[in-house]
Amino acid sequence: MTQTYQTAFSEPWVSGPILGIETSCDETAASVLSAQGTVLSNVISSQHHVHERFGGVVPELASRAHVENIDAIVSCAMEKAGMGWKDLTGLAVTEGPGLAGALLVGLNYAKTLGYALGIPVAGVSHLQGHIASAWLDNPGFPRSCVLLVVSGGHSHLYRRENSGDCELLGCTRDDAAGEAFDKGAQMLGLGFPGGPALDRLAQKGNSKAIPFPRSIIKNGRLDLSFSGLKTALLYKVQVLDETSIERQRADLAAGYQEAIVSMLVSRAFAALRQSKLAALAVVGGVSANSRLRALLQERAEEEQIQLSIPPLRYCTDNAAMIAAAGREALQSGRRLSLDAEPYTSLASLHL
Ligand code: KG4
Ligand code: ZN
Of 23, 111, 167, 184, which is least surrounded by CB within 10 A? Predict the structure, then answer.
């Protein structure tokens, strides 16, 4: 899908400041990285207030909000970084996966800007971006590691080689971990987006008060499944009246969260054992979860595993991670074609 054009930019790219742009879903984000890869600015405009009353992201509204916001967000990122257009040596933009209309806004903006400034543009996969976030504040973290990518669209485990090649070790058979959080939060009446709300409520509950199932898929891979857990929560909520739900809401949230988090942690550590690696990076929106972070830290200390979980500002969607992945792409000579189109699914992995 991604084509390369080597006409104006056939010469090697000289590393300098990069502008990253991310518009794959409901965050319009821009970030400037220095020549050395330091984050100089990281600006995010969330559209949660636009989609909240619909209980999920409405694609058409997302595209329109990106169109309205992108210019101001990019200008703000440039200003915060103290950069002028002439200082930029490259651009990076999310090419997919995501919402087609939303992706088109960022992609067309980057292609136009790159053409006007005469600088190369790198198209990166949103997943590559999340993965790159593991090294943003932790550049010395081993490049050969196990990766757990947990977001609203993905629950994937990879073995990453020094070269950057990633082998898929397992993924979810149904919902992504973020979807499981969001749908659970919806059942508990916690609104949208549900993950952070469920995380906050669970801190007030007892995770052992109400038992929840953990599913184990025995197919030779390290796959995950959250549908049984989701159904278990639905059945528990269905038989309770409003007063009982109110009384048990925090315990339900804590038990449900504990089940998701413990499945993720047990799969990640099984991947480490299987790969004989001692470094684990956990990235994506769900890596912002406080219980997941605590449990990972605990297990990593016990088993002497090097752990990289990005700071909260780089867990959920942002453009610093896109700029970081784009920097590597530009260095390895990859360029976005002017006729490149966004891709909406992860079909060919684009890793
Ligand atoms: O990476 P991300 O911002 O967007 C996607 O690429 O999907 O991830 C968003 C997901 C949402 O499902 C959101 O509910 C979840 O990450 N999330 C959380 C937390 N913060 C965000 N889930 C659990 N606990 C959190 N603190
Ligand atoms: Zn994401």
Answer: 167
DSSP 8-class letter at 15 = P
> In what side-by-side order are the strands of the sheet with 279-283?
166-171, 155-160, 145-150, 279-283, 306-308
Q: Please report, in angstroms and rounded to a whole number, the separation of the first and last CA atoms in the chain.
A: 13
Closest to 32 (Cα-Cα) out of 89, 104, 97 = 89
Residue 48: partners with Cβ closer than 8 Å, 6 or more residues away: 26, 192, 193
What is the pLDDT at residue 277?
A: 98
**Burial (CB count within 10 angstroms: exposed 0-12, middle 13-18, buried 19+), residue 188:** buried
Nearest CA residue ID for atom 3, ligand 1: 316
pLDDT tens, residue by residue, 283-300 = 999 999 999 999 999 999
Ligand 1 geometric centre to CA of 348 (Å): 23
Ligand nearest to the CA of 194: 1
